[in-house]
Specification:
alpha/beta; Rossmann fold
Length: about 140
Amino acid sequence: MNIALMANDKKKELMVQFCTAYRSILAQHNVSATATTGRLVAETTGLPIHLVLAGNQGGPEQIMARIAYDEVDIVFFFTDPNSRDPQQDQCLVETLRLCDTYNVPCATNLASAEMLILGLQRGDLDWRELSRPKRLKRQA
């Protein structure tokens, strides 16, 4: 599976903690992330992370394009619900719209992320691979 990680500034540490806790599951998949989030996760966990641009340089848009091109199976986007940044809010809205459009599971908080990662471990998301047998797997 191809997993994308994004986190608002105030949630980056939570993303690192989440990835540390579920490192063994994430290690079995291709993980990509926006630059700052991915660098923090990679440094802490040792996971190989494919980095796209930083958030303010277009990284979220790169992830969104990958969602639209069916190159992302799961999105973990830890958001700050108290943010008053219209750019972050727009990024969240657009990411959720694309995930809904292309039927990509997306977690925006720790509770939903844990449910999603444990479902991934159990095989609950295998239907994504089975529904597109001719899909090319991206390599991180």
